[in-house]
Amino acid sequence: MSLMFYYLALGTGARRLHVSSAFSAKVAMSRFEPGSSVNYEKMRENIKIVRKRLNRPLTLSEKIVYGHLDDPVGQEIDRGRTYLRLRPDRVAMQDATAQMAMLQFISSGLPKVAVPSTIHCDHLIEAQIGGAQDLQRAKEVNQEVYNFLATAGAKYGVGFWKPGSGIIHQIILENYAYPGVMLIGTDSHTPNGGGLGAICIGVGGADAVDVMAGIPWELKCPKVIGVRLTGTLSGWTSPKDVILKVAGILTVKGGTGAIVEYHGPGVDSISCTGMATICNMGAEIGATTSVFPYNHRMRTYMHATGRGDIASLSDEFKDDLVPDKGCEYDQVIEINLSELKPHINGPFTPDLAHPVSEIGAIAKKNGWPLEVKVGLIGSCTNSSYEDMGRAASLAKQALDKGLKCKAQFTVTPGSEQIRATIERDGYAKILSDVGGVVLANACGPCIGQWDRKDVKKGEKNTIVTSFNRNFTARNDANPATHAFVTSPEIVTALAIAGTLNFNPETDYLTTPNGEKFKLEPPTGDELPSRDFDPGQDTYQHPPKESSSVKVDVNPASNRLQLLEPFDKWHGKDLEDMRVLIKVKGKCTTDHISAAGPWLKFRGHLDNISNNLLIGAVNIENDAVNKIKNQLTGEYGGVPDVARHYKANGVNWVVIGDENYGEGSSREHAALEPRHLGGRAIIVKSFARIHETNLKKQGLLPLTFADPHDYDKIRPDDKISIMGLKSFGPGKPVTAVIKHSDGSKDSISLNHTFNETQIEWFQAGSALNRMKELQ
Q1: Span 425-437, mean pLDDT?
Q2: N or C of the chain: less Cβ packing under 10 Å?
Q3: Could you please report the per-residue DSSP string of 474-528?
Q4: Spatial CB neighbours of 688, under 8 Å, sequence gap ≥ 6
Q5: Distances (CA, A) of 144 to 320, 488, 554, 608
Q6: How high is the pLDDT of residue 39?
Q7: What is the mean predicted confidence (pLDDT) over 322-340?
Q8: Alpha-carbon span 299 to 454, nearest angstrom
Q9: Are 540 and 153 in contact (CB under 8 A)?
Q10: What domains sit in the chain, N to C, each tagged with a CATH number?
Q11: Can you give the C-alpha Rg of the chain in angstroms?
Q12: Above 70 in pLDDT, residue 562?
């Protein structure tokens, strides 16, 4: 068979196919630079080398990960222990994290990115009125940032998806993901691409810079959790219920350090976009990523999105895109889809799982508000054509009976292509007629970009969403909002009913004339019968010649700020550091570096640092953003006290609990403590991305060898980290705790640094080390 090298280039609103001959199994992707390609032959070669070395069958995750090894012959491979040096195929960045990533890339001094990379404008659009008005306002308010990202992309060879194009993960699924690709993205929900058989991993901006610089990317060799699916999805049960169930089993940290690999006969009953939903929310269990094996659902989706050529190659190399028979998983979970019931998780954490049939009674027992104030569908997790169609099927049933939503109802399309297609096919009108407001193709309320007006801050209320996260105050900045995550179908049903105390499988609604009726189970086409309508062309291709492109950062800007290198380690132990705050309980990246209104400062390190840990609970007084300044004896906000310590030459540490830094990939949660004088973060355990981000910025993420030692530390202690001159992989360090009463404690602290990462610490940051090696 002759293999062709296809170039897919985007015209105005439609793809045009250009073909030229080549001699390897390579297919270039739509809407990006020549040179980025599918290379299954190289992956197959690596897989053969590794399989022979390990002498055992491989899981799908291992095939794709090991297929991207920089040195498959010499790389030490031990799941859960060794660090792998990998060569990802491409990088994707959303606009809130791309600012700092591009600022770091500019600081590297490199002329162009070494791998295909894209920027996606989806995070800075605030939901206020409706899609068109909110998008126009965002373009005006964020003009400086959008201009920076567009010109930086043009200058350094990065594709630019303009505001209004859609959510990064939906754009990746429609254009860039394919079976066997390895993609890293500066957003924790990058694993969405696993629904198309890809290994897509969320990272911080500094990791993205490594890959864009052509440096091998490091990842601790992941364990593999197998989820075996049997049976068939039907009725009210949706793909979202699979991950809601898994989250209830594994909890928010049960997947840490592992790839979740779905397999089994039940897989074929799930659509490609449904598989993406499941992989997307795998971030909520701490998983490195999640993935499904290649099947006919993926092939159909690639054909529908203009990538039939890649589908043909995937067919040819299918053996490399499914797990080997007899492969072994570190843990196996079994779920019978035929027995799975609709779930709803929350409030305040995405792993508190309840069957929908029981949530009313559970809410009553716990005093959670039963009235649903707002139902919100969409987001990167659930905004596919199928999702919208199934929600619209329920809305139409209500409309036919003279009903509209009792709750407020919002709809967020995942991309411009989805928006245009659901508008053409009538879904958007049905959802609007039932009471919905169609928002911009953006993240919106899911990440706190929501100018909510119907309740006051502090007012107890309930919202239901098809989003992925529901941490305290995440969606609307109101800590009293009880947010529940579920499927778009259940959100729509509960919005129509207006209460949590409604089970659509058994309960009846009442029409305006008093008639009782029950909603029929939702239905919806997996893909549009008339192909997708691409809508407006919102992509900016980087020019071939960019020497004349200027990237300006105004020194007086409050949105953007060029970076200064962090100071190098002085070669001594870190002595007598103050405890900035001892955090009580859950501390996500939302607690460490809030989003919402703070997103506007993501390109300005000093300004964004004014939100450092303002959401974390101080164990001393159970208050947020109120800590004691040990130099003055007065209480102040966390960033203010940190700045005071820094101004007085006092280093400090943060003490934390379990799974510290769970949630978003935002590296600002690591940059801010480093910028304000932090040296170490000492906790019971870390979330994966945040731990890596801290290392990248020259901080010491350390864990208690004995978790009970957390209780030994007092807010007014001084802490010294000893033995740093002999700092080495696998070798614990000692912390000496000096109490104000003159007594001392000495405790052991563990770390996961390897040799390369220790060099980052010694140089002051990974970026500093990169410059040293140039």
Answers
A1: 98
A2: N
A3: TTTS-TTEEEEE--HHHHHHHHHHTBSS--TTT--EE-TTS-EE-PPPP---SS-
A4: 220, 256, 257, 286, 288
A5: 45, 35, 10, 16
A6: 87
A7: 98
A8: 44
A9: yes
A10: 40-336 (3.30.499.10), 343-503 (3.30.499.10), 574-773 (3.20.19.10)
A11: 25
A12: yes
Average model confidence (pLDDT) for the chain?
93
pLDDT band at 597; cut points 50, 70, 90: confident
């992707």: which residue's tokens?
29
Residue 22 has pLDDT above 70, yes or no: no
Centre a 10 Å sphere on the Cβ of residue 545 and count the other Cβ atoms it contains.
Answer: 6
**Chain centroid offset of residue 101 CA:** 15
Length of the chain measured in residues: 774
Instruction: From 43, 71, 37, select the one nearest 58 (Cα to Cα).
Output: 43
Q: Is the pLDDT of residue 293 over 80?
A: yes
The H-assigned helical ranges of 401-468 are 416-424, 427-433
Provide the token pair at 626: 């109120």
Beta strand 223-230 pairing with 258-263: parallel
Structure tokens, 178? 């394919």
Please report which residue ranges of 585-677 form alpha helices under DSSP H: 589-592, 605-608, 638-647, 668-675
In sequence order, the 6+-apart residues with CB closer than 8 A to the CB of 719 are: 576, 577, 578, 579, 653, 680, 682, 713, 735, 736, 737, 738
Q: Which long-range contacts (CB under 8 A, 24 or more apart) does 14-21 make?
A: 14/534, 15/306, 15/534, 17/309
Strands 617-618 and 623-624: antiparallel
The mean pLDDT of 231-260, rounded to a whole number, is: 95
> Would you please indicate which residues are annotated as catalytic (active-site) residues?
122-123, 187, 469, 664, 666
CA proximity to 697, closest of 682, 678, 684, 683: 678
Quote the CA–CA distance of 491 and 717 in Å, as a whole number: 48
Read off the pLDDT of residues 161-212 as tens digits, 9 standing for 90 and up: 999 999 999 999 999 999 999 999 999 999 999 999 999 999 999 999 999 9
Q: Are 68 and 205 in contact (CB under 8 A)?
A: no
Q: What single-letter DSSP state applies at residue 564?
A: P
Residue recorded with tokens 């919202």: 463
Question: What would the mean pLDDT of 202-230 be, rounded to a whole number?
Answer: 96
For residue 37, the model assigns a pLDDT of 57
CA distance 190 to 183: 8
